[in-house]
Amino acid sequence: MDQDRRILIADDHDLFCRGLRYALLDAFERVEIVEARSIAKAIAALDRQDGFALASFDLRVPGMDWGKALPGIRRMRPSLPIIVLSGFEERRHILEAIAFGASGFVPKSRPTE
Fold first, then answer.
1. Average pLDDT across the chain, whole number
2. Nearest 5°: CA angle at 98, between 92 and 66?
3. Which residues face 55 on adjacent strands?
4. What pLDDT was estimated at residue 4?
5. pTM: predicted TM-score of the whole model, two decimal places
6. Confidence (pLDDT) at 30
7. What is the CA radius of gyration of the chain?
8. Where are the alpha helices (DSSP H) in 1-113?
9. CA 77 – CA 104 distance, rounded (Å)
10. Nearest-10 Cα torsion for 35, 111, 58, 54
11. Could you say which of 26, 28, 61, 101 is the most buried, measured as most Cβ atoms within 10 Å of its Cβ?
């Protein structure tokens, strides 16, 4: 597997993770998906493996204190694109996520494309 095709999904909702997994597998010819159901497991995956092309975090994944976790992940992986996928869509959440180190914010209500 090409390391530049590894994507981390950190979300505790199995149905959402499965949907995102299949959307990514459909969008990319070859991609390895690493799933984590808590922030601790996500950080362990990032610590254990290199070559992530993208990391996706839900703001409410268990253990997520996004004011601490996102900056910590940013320090751990300074060049890693980090997106926040969240059911929250308020402007303040988007701005806070970016301020804490997210590269982008995608509301879960957006179409798959």
1. 90
2. 80
3. 8, 82
4. 62
5. 0.89
6. 86
7. 13
8. 14-27, 39-48, 66-76, 91-99
9. 15
10. 50
11. 61
